[in-house]
Amino acid sequence: MTKPKVYVIGVGMTKFTKPGSTGLDYPDLVKEAVNEALADAKLEYKDIQQATVGYLFGGTCCGQRALYEIGLTGIPIFNVNNACASGSSGVFLCKQILESGNADVVLACGFEKMAAGSLENMGGKLDDRALSVDNHIQVMADTYGLFPAPITAQMFGNAGKEHMEKYGTKREHFAKIAHKNHLHSVHNPKSQFTKEFSLDQVLNARQIYDFMGLLECSPTSDGSAAAVLCSERYLEAHPHLRPQAVEIVGFQLGTDQPSVFAENSNIKMIGFDMIQKIAQNLYKETGLTPNDVQVIELHDCFAPNELITYEALGLCPIGKAGELIDRGDNTYGGKWVINPSGGLISKGHPIGATGVAQVVELSNQLRGRCGKRQVPNARVAMQHNIGIGGAGVVAMYRLAGGAGSSPAARTPAASGASLKSDVIFDEIKERIHTEKDLVQKVSTSFGITISGANGVTKKWFIDTKASPPYVGNQERPTEISVTVSDESFMQIASGALKPDQAFMQGKMKLKGNIAKAMKLRQLLDPKLLKAKI
Fold first, then answer.
1. Of the candidates 179, 182, 409, the residue with the CA atom closest to the CA atom of residue 294
2. Which intervals hold domain Thiolase N-terminal (predicted)?
């Protein structure tokens, strides 16, 4: 069943700042972020039908207290506490609300007003009950032991140590990530820090835990971020918003796998398998892969988490993140720009606001509004947000299309017109994810242009060399280009016309290696296709 589309139509955020440095309380911060998002969406607060507010530190109903500063409209307001993924969990709830049809315009916001220093300084100790992370701490105690250092720094620092021991990752690889993120933040006026640090400065910064220094750790912060989301029917009724609308192509929220405690691994303990699983679910849901992505906002609470997450997301094979870093594939000029905002390490980490702030940055990147930190040709964006305890989010975004949008960001099949061959590509998509031998036999990438009646044309891309394999409409480089009519393609799929016959008769045009092109027969074997033709 196809889900209704959901869009981000307005975003806003405060500058993230050192705790207590501005004198502003959390209702002031939320008001600033929400009003900016509403102005961006060209709406008023009375237009909002439901809202979520993410935060970690505070009493009950802080969401109401904050939003009441903007208006008392009687709408449902949900307070969301899901560790460092609180804000993005609120976005997930907003998406579900819109998909349910119970609202057309909703608000996701998040905030935090924190204390200086590590999270242990936030107070509110509850000594008479279980800690939400006591089993996570036990994994550390059983492996590297416990030390007088911030617990979260030990968690992620130990995961980094384990990675170095298992895969030969160097201490400098973590420092390179922090160096990159501080450098990216120089051009972000909303960032808590906007100072460039040399690699030596990162390496020689004050030690926080083991090898990890101050500049490789996210700070505590005050700040708020907000996003206005709408339904497809609302966008259709307000076409003036389409040029700025960002589609949430897919959004996965998940929790830990059994391995988080069972394997006595600090890498697994910080949520590696959780993120790997939901990322794979996302790629299956959207038909997109990391190869389709240009820009990523990734939860770099500590530098080791960014490095380890490269592998969990499938940006590189397990154990090879150091090579990705050394190639520069995580910054401008490389394969992806990861954390152009400066990430949590430099932009700041007001916990409840972080997941929403990632949506703000990615929306602005896709809309081309990021000035000197703008990622060139940003068409597809990925979000990664994690909370120890645990909660994980991985999501994909792209510009909705319309006037002023990049044609490359639009899906060619988005017009809604259907061709007979659509069902064949749907089946090929299913087969390449379930038949490993088929993927190995074909091992080729195709770009197939299908022309139908009334001028309808669709472009399909099949890449069996990608990991995971890909079938969809998102444009990408291919080895073989095929142009064929919808009718001839269906004849090939039914067995009435062989691919080489179609080529010789001029019914199918090919560009590329002919021998590889003939591997199309493996995908269109009439004996294996289940679709009714």
1. 409
2. 6-232
- What is the per-residue pLDDT across 88-105, written as a single tens digit (0 to 9) for each? 999 999 999 999 999 999
Longest CA–CA span in the chain (Å) reads 80
Torsion angle (degrees, nearest 10) of CA 523, 528, 532, 533: 50
Residue with tokens 């972080």: 354
Nearest CA to 157 out of 255, 301, 56, 350 is that of 301
Q: Are 482 and 509 in contact (CB under 8 A)?
A: yes
Which residues, at least 6 apart from 148, have a Cβ–Cβ distance to it below 8 Å? none
pLDDT digits (tens, 9 = 90+) for 364-379: 999 999 999 999 999 9
> CA 189 to CA 176: how far, in whole Å?
22
In one-letter notation, the amino acid at residue 443 is S
- Reference 49, options 92, 5, 107, 9; nearest CA is 107
Q: At residue 99, what is the residue type?
A: E
**Amino acid symbol at 445:** S
Could you give the CA distance from residue 62 to residue 55 in angstroms, rounded to a whole number?
Answer: 8
Tokens of 280: 């794979």
Task: Give the residue from 488, 487, 466, 492 showing the smallest Cα distance to 477.
Answer: 466
- Residue 519 CB burial class (10 angstroms; 0-12, 13-18, ≥19): middle
Amino acid at 250: G
Tokens of 310: 């490269």
Please write the tens of the pLDDT for every residue from 235-285: 999 999 999 999 999 999 999 999 999 999 999 999 999 999 999 999 999
> What are phi and psi for residue 164, nearest 5 degrees?
-65, -40
